[in-house]
Amino acid sequence: MDSPSHTSRSFWLTLLLVNIVVNLVMFRAAYLRLVELGVDLTRAAWSGILALCLFLAAFSLWLMIRIGANRSSFADRAERITFDALPLRILGGIVFLGILFLIPYVKFTYRIGQDIKQPVYDPELLLLLYYWGCWWLILLGMAVLRTAFRTSWMGGFVAALLLLGVTYAVMTRYNVVTNYPFSLGWSEGSRYYYASLLFSRTLYGEAFPLSPYHASRYILQSVPFLFHGLGIFEHRLWQFLLWIGLTLGAALALAWRVIPAEKKGLRLLLAAWFFLFFLQISVYYHLQVMVLLVLLGVSSKHPWRTVLTIVAASLWAGISRVNWFPMPAMMATAIYLLETPVEGTFKSFRQFLRYVSRPAVWLILGVVSAIAAQSAYVFLSGNAANARAFTSSFTSDLLWYRLLPNDSFPLGIIPGVLIVSSPLLVGLIFVAVRHWKRLHPFRWASLFIMIVGLFAGSMVVSVKIGGGGDLHNTDTYAVLLGIVAAYFAGNRIRSDVAEAGGWGILMPPVITVGAVIPILFLIPALSPYPVYRADIAQAAHQQLIQAVNEMKKSGPVLFISERQMITFGEVDVPLVPEYEVIILMEMAMSGNQTYLQQFYADLKEHRFAAIVAGRQNLGIKTDGVFFEENNVWNSKISPYILCYYEPTREIETELRRIQIFTPRLNGDCSLP
């Protein structure tokens, strides 16, 4: 175990290194921008800021050298500074609350560079200054937390970052809780429609097939439909609560499992970090149910409870995502490997079989349970006629370039997930190298094989067309890595040798960098809550309602998009369950010709009196954001809509254009 003095020195060395990087990055970016703008640096006020950046970087380097060479007692003296006066402690708490509010306030209210022509007020320069200022506010937050709560400097730094991070993560998620009547994304409104299908007989007058995708998500999202009359605002609020509540529950369950009760502060900090980690990866809330079940139910002292937990979680996986089928058993296996020492050195094959038999049985039971759940759901959901929809991910194109930086995800999947998970990964590798003798090679190998295997699988899932725009497809890798690393952080590993002491994964460099990474993503993501003009939204909403109510007199109206308007009773038309935008896109990407040919036939026969959809076009792109998905839609869907139907009404909303299509009576579009 490192001494407090060594820990303090390591922390200050790491913090000073980060400070050097921050100031040099600020200097370089600002200097290049000023040169680009042709600013005379001998006269500009920015010259003083550039000089200050260089001075702070040089001073930090000088201090690092002295601390590293043990020629300065700065770290020890800094830890001896105390603030015992009550007024100072109260003032520290007030200042921190001010910092908590100030960082988003400036970003939310100051229109950076708006209507300003002078180079010194260039928007890019002001953003650089804002982010640089945020860094110094964070350091001030560290100091005031130490003042208010008598933490260590490292404790104050980590607590400041995590408190800011949790607050900003919640604020960012709450951005979508609004009563805006239209879909906030190309498929956001569809989620409420699919959730409503569990109550289709009550809402639509007859039973309709459920969604073939993410059934567990829609089960959770369907809860508000138990209460009559709730609208889109309440459903968005419920989804926000699912994101925050289940993610926080999983983070708390993990921290409470690995950290002793007497270390309450560490428990809360670890829970806060994993809360941010899971949200950065975007581990969806319906998948957190499995994490919660395993963390709360798996126990070496209760083997039958463990089996029941794995089966229950695997049944949930079967109606969630294919790549999660083995996850409950793999999480339980990782816990088993971490908590169960090897007796001896596997001197006999029987001894080896005895050790591996339990996780082997779990894996078989888990996968079989997941497959059984999906198979049952295919028929119970009413999708037996389109069972191929459940395997669409296996026939979709794989876009391998999305593993690296690209237009759809500038960070790239591999760099992105490695950056976000680097504190866990680096810490785990360090522990394995330093303490490899404390665990049997089989335990080390099994843990790393599972982590690497899930990483590889996550890469394949991430490059499927329709994905790769964020890190959510790396969720299995992130969750298992998080569980394993958390066990080492809490010293909950049972060694195979009688060696005392902790595992040392909570090294100051790992802790410091790990606390900084979430803020690096969160502060740039802060943005004002979207304020939609009620008059514009209401007018567009009424136009669409009036147009649909008029056209329904001629026959059925197909809502490809904005189907939540039927769900919430805003338009009084019979539901046409087929050809919703999510299913239609998935069938197009997977090349489900049976489904597509039926769609084409219905269009050709003018089955629908009108179609409500987004604006259609035939443009084929060679680059840009999600251009392959655009091309699939514009080659397999749009041509057929525009062939047999024509746009007769266009409604402008603040986010997109909605078109109403009616049958095209003349013309030959020469489509099969």
Q: Could you spell the SSE succession in H and E letters?
A: HHHHHHHHHHHHHHHHHHHHEHHHEHHEE
Tell me, what's the shape?
A: globular
Query: Which oligomeric form is depicted?
Result: single chain
Biggest pleated-sheet summary: 4 strands, mixed
Helix-strand category: mainly alpha
List unreliable stretches of 5+ residues.
Answer: 112-117
The average pLDDT score comes to: 90
Using only C-alpha atoms, the radius of gyration works out to 28 Å
Give the strand order of the largest sheet, numbering strands 1, 2, ... along the chain.
1-2-4-3
Plain-language structure description:
The chain is mostly helical. The protein is 62% helix and 3% strand. The protein has helices spanning 4-37, 46-68, 74-80, 86-109, 123-149, 153-174, 188-196, 200-204, 215-221, 232-258, 264-281, 285-297, 303-318, 327-339, 349-380, 413-434, 441-462, 475-489, 508-525, 534-551, 564-567, 581-590, 593-604, 627-636, 638-644; strands spanning 557-559, 610-614, 645-652, 657-663. A four-stranded mixed sheet has the order 1-2-4-3. Helix 1 runs antiparallel to helix 2 (46-68), helix 6 (153-174) packs parallel to helix 19 and helix 12 (285-297) runs antiparallel to helix 13. It is globular, with a radius of gyration of 28 Å. The relative contact order is 0.09.
Q: Can I get a quick summary?
A:
By secondary structure, the chain is mostly helical.
Any descriptors?
672 residues, four-stranded mixed beta sheet, single chain, mainly alpha, 62% helix, 25 helices
Present the secondary structure layout:
Elements: H1 4-37, H2 46-68, H3 74-80, H4 86-109, H5 123-149, H6 153-174, H7 188-196, H8 200-204, H9 215-221, H10 232-258, H11 264-281, H12 285-297, H13 303-318, H14 327-339, H15 349-380, H16 413-434, H17 441-462, H18 475-489, H19 508-525, H20 534-551, E1 557-559, H21 564-567, H22 581-590, H23 593-604, E2 610-614, H24 627-636, H25 638-644, E3 645-652, E4 657-663
Helix pairs in contact: 1-2, 1-5, 1-19, 4-5, 5-6, 6-11, 6-19, 7-9, 10-11, 10-12, 10-18, 11-18, 11-19, 12-13, 12-14, 13-14, 13-15, 14-15, 14-17, 14-18, 16-18, 16-19, 17-18
